[in-house]
Amino acid sequence: MGLAQTKEIKPGRYHSNSAGQDFILKMNEDKTYELVFLHGLYQQQGDTIKLNPEKSQQGAFSVIPVARDKASRYITIKMTNKMSRYFVYNIYIGTQQTESRPAEYKSIKDYMKSVDFDSEEPILFTIERTKFLYFANYGGTDFRPAKKKATSISKFEIPDDVSEIDLDYSYGGIDNLDFSLYRDENNEIVMAAGKSPSPLIFTEESEIVQRETLTAKVIEDPDFARNAGLITDTDEQMALEEEVVQSYNFKYAVEKTFDEAQKATARSKDKFLVVAFDYDNTKRVAEFEKFVARMETLVSNKMEGEYNAAEDHFNFYPASEKDKNLLVKNKFDLKKPQILVFNAGGDLIYHSTAKLNTSGYFGTYNSAYDELARANEYLKFDRVLSNRKSTQAATVKAFKSVSKVASPGNRADYAVPVPTATEVETETYTETYTETVVDTTVVSYSYDEEDYDYTPDVIRDKENLYQLQADPNTTNSKWAQIVSYFKQKNLYDQDFIDVGLAEVYGKGFTRKLFGKGKEAPEETDFQFLNYVFVHFEEIRKAEAEFHDEIHYQRNDVNFVLDRFFKSIADSAMDNETSRQKLLQYYRKFVVATGDNVNGLKLYFDFLQAILDEGTSQEYLDVYGRYYNAVVQPNASIIESLDRVYTNENEATRQLDWTNYKQSFAGTANTVAWYVVEHRLHESAVKNAIHWSETSLHIEPGNAYYLDTLAQLYYLNGEKERAISKEREAVKAALLMDDADTKSKYEEVLERMKNGTY
Fold first, then answer.
1. Please, what are the domains in the chain?
2. Pairing of β 338-342 and β 272-277
């Protein structure tokens, strides 16, 4: 074991937690170390000692206070163990203000916007302050009485000054093993886990390690889901009824000849014909029939009671002696087993030197269907782009089709010749394109990998799978021509819009064809946005109508544009040309959306990030528009915020309700304070007073907000009102136990009183 370090690691005792398991590392003065991974109580049973992990006394949860603030109305909960995020749907948190009232339960997921299972960052969320916290791991789907198990609940009393805790959940790692400790015939200490053939041999000592945590009371609840209000009698009845669903008896139609098998496959454009060759195997017929029977069982189970075309991907055909020419024509070895996969048009998409019953590619799990479908779309895309007679509509549909396939896995640079094919279109498009003047300003994308639909590749011999022939330059040039065409003609086309929105979102044809998104948006992307702004109302109207495509294929234009601007904002900060370009498109965006709340907030956030003397007035104007879009004239502040919060897409919501209110109040105070700091004009002061009063309406008694409003009152000529409000700020700072802030506010109060402010 090696330790790479830049600073000295001093002797001492160190604690860690990994995958739900505690570790104690002792670094000794003599350059030795000790790693302790179990600690707890032990029991003497005859000549054997049974080790009982400490968590059996404490429950599966441990709570460690890490911050204290008696004035805080919230408790921040942090889970640093990476494995914990896999249990956010099953771990429930109960809050209880007094023992006379029942605990109210919510899952951790209910507190979170989304879960990134690959993130290394801790899980972090807030709850309102409570006297007792309950933690339970409950699966939440198995309501059948015969299978019910008691749920173990850990109850903690939270001191009234704790404002942040570390929550650890031991999901059942090494500390759950049944360890025994005994001396063998050599008088050595042996430690064995159950029936493990590899016990540990100790020669000297062990040590009990204690952790400083809050004490838990462990409660066993045999009917946790019902008692916590998670299910009702109706839920239980529905769960029981679901078991009655019968499977569909699916059967493959195995044709007698290759031609008949091709025709049958051609009747469904999305299916593939899998042909098995195994001439030297005398049992090939029996093996083929056994394989087909097994696939029929798997597909039947997936169909759940009725035929579902989405589970029916393949037709199978056992090659006869008459089909040897298929191998000869493609120069494949007749003496080895071969698998050939054809699309509905009869094109060879994939081949493999393997037996059908051992390939593992054509079942319902770990299927190669996504890879075959993607390769098939690549083939069709290549043909459309290489065919000079392809119509504009056919080209757009080809771009759309490849935008919908699953993102590729680790794509290698293979070159497989395109099979000969008939022309797919006969119309000739002769429209000329005006050359676009390209702005060379570079603005980088910053998309999260979690946003992309990704299917792990399962085909191992990828060199035998059809590979894309089109290159990025040719593809982008063709797309630029399409964008130019629709801009010039001012034509509304839904397929074109779907392709363009997927592309600017970062999950369009570039990613699906070449395995990764663009490093930066191109001029073509901005030209497409110009088209979107012109047709914005038509796009929104089309989105509101029923359509049979899933969400990622018909994107929400507001959501896509929000993400587009967010993704490129950071990279535009350090370049004046980039900043001005982005500001230009923010302005177009909010005009097109009719001062949409989300668009204005993005616009404002960008202005705040680049705020200087030149953007000061625009910063205040845009915030005013944003504030007016949120706060309705005839509604209270909280009602207005609730309306906007409720209308947000739940899947993309950034904050929970409590933090959303706090964020709005904080932003209102920030802008109001900007007016104070820069001693701006009278109209700005009056607007800022309104904004500052709003922040205090949401969070009464906040010392910072009280100080801001007091100084605004003074700047507005309301001296007595300002002095009264600053006194409130001083009192609030005293409750914060912040001597520096209190002293600063007292100085402001004194200057207000003596007229030197």
1. 12-55+177-202 (no CATH), 60-171+213-240 (no CATH), 258-367 (3.40.30), 449-456+471-754 (1.25.40.10)
2. antiparallel
